[in-house]
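Our collaborator T.R. sent over the components below with a one-line note: 'Predict the complex.' Nothing else. No constraints on interfaces, no templates requested, no preferences about which chain binds where. So this is a plain run: every listed entity goes in together, and whatever single assembly comes back becomes the starting point for the next discussion.
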Amino acid sequence: MSAASKKLIAGTILAIAVGGLVGWLYSATLLGLLVAALLIIAIYMRKLLLFERALRHGDVESIGYGDGVWQQLYSQFKQERERSNRYRKQARRLVKEVQKSTYAMPDGAVVIDGDNEIVTCNRAAKNLIGLKRKKDRGQKLDNIFRHPQITELLQQNDASQSVDVESPLRDNEWLNCRIVPYGANQKLVLIRDVTDRITLNKVRRDFVANASHELRSPLTVISGYLETLTDDPEVPDELAKPLAQMQVQARRMTSIVKDLLELSRLEGDGQASMDDRVDVAFLVATAVQAFSSVADDGPEILSTIKSDALLLGAESDIDSILHNLLANAVRHTDADGEIEITWRTDENGGELIVRDTGEGIAAEHLVRLTERFFRVDRGRSRGDGGFGLGLAIVKHAIERHGGELHIESEPGEGSEFRCIFPASRLVAA
Amino acid sequence: MQASDFTDHISRRFNQDIEELRNGVLAMGGLVESQLSKAIAAIVTGDSELGLQVANDDYKVNDLEVSIDEGCSRVLATRSPAAGDLRLIVAIIKTITDLERIGDEAEKIGFLASRLAGMDRPPDSYRELKTLGNHVLHMVRDSMNTFARLDVDDAFAVVREDERVDEEYESIQRQCITFMMEDPRSIKRVMNVTWAARSLERIGDHAKNICEYVIYMVQGRDVRHTGISTANELDENETQ
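Returned assembly:
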């Protein structure tokens, strides 16, 4: 117990005792005690009311420092208040700093609530998609930033998804949008200018397409002359071997160029010829026949057709998928191995599976397998025809059909390539 | 009038109905915008596949029109809206018709693009068409923005913008006539170009119509067929 508290209690008891003594002198002890107690209550009440009024006006100084406990109460309250003021100022400054930094961020950021209504946005968002901070508060984001893909993205509400859309304000500019859910039903929409990336990609694609196209005509001429020369009986014998070599290499190059052209066609955005009704079962049968007749001493190729459903898509793409997967399987499977190709459908979609009992692929290579020009074994002889474009073509062709490619493999056990097509692309025969 | 005025009813269900209709119109607008943007890209870059894709996707716009139309009829029948709500419903019914027409014109442009892709390309790669197209695309975007924000000032700006589109169209027309006179062999190709320009010009008119509906919706005034000078006058009175 502090000195001030002791003093307060002692003072109160003393005052009441004095009151009682005075009352006793006048032979009215009870009255004396009562008067003293009432007086004390009145004094304390006045101080309490003063304190309350000072608090209400926020002016603790004006009542000055009383004595004892009251003084301590005042000064403690004042300290407490100053400290909280200081904290509040700090917090406010911090919030302002954070606000300023998000505001100045080069990427657009829009905060939206559970109904996709705009809560706030930064300056970049205003510049990138033309939001108006005050006016658009409470509007749905996809009412202002209207694009079918944005609406779809908002519905999915998945932070791992992002879409590239054209800028609504400027021509030939592209924006990448991503939605990050956070907190209680809040979402952050991040918008980034990706014009450079898109343009670069397009330039690369155009370059590959053009270069491959330009390479094709000289190659045709070279192959043509090589063929005439090998057939020519007057060519000396010692040239026969080099000529044959040259012919093999020219053929190889022609097929690389063909694959590159195929790849750039698949990468294009056009989808005009995607509505053919493709008879997958028939294509499988033809492909199996073609490969069995080429590789007589190769592995056995079996086909299991469990569905006669047709696939909506481009026949050339499906054929290309089959051809590339089978070629890979034949290349990597020994003569005593087995290749099985399956086509089956259910309500979840269709699956085209090519499974082999070949050498398999190590796990660390699986991720990069569909990159163009990626080959598991760089030292491997290139004479056998693989040059790392096949799976890239397969992947792009499947993606064009809205599907996915899953690869499972165990070194030494064999590999399984599963092409999964969405149910929306299947029609009953 | 504010966008939130429409969702200020005691019946929550009514709020939702009206909000859904508004969102539907804007989603349809977004689809039409992307269709138009693709159609223009197809014609400028000579991408026949993209052009055909636009032509094939027009059914999505039509489907949206039908479903929003149904929604409007339902609200009219069950809620008997009055005043601002009634004007909103009327404006929506008209707006979706114009949006659907814009979709049709985009379909036409896409089809023309696929046809033009197979022909010789002029050295300027249809620069005029691109300028006109982008101009019109921005008009459509702005008209949907005014619909979303109920911004009368911007609506008047789009209405005025239509005159400039008409001028650009005239100039393309004159240029095309010159081409055809110079080289009769190009007539077939240039005819297609004039059709595309014509479609773009029509889209500008539809965007203008939408803005007029927005003005009607917000102020209850009909500014159609009043000429640009009257529109200006009204705008000035409004801002005073």
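Summary for T.R.: Helices of chain B lie at 12-45, 48-79, 83-117, 127-149, 152-182, 187-219, 227-239.
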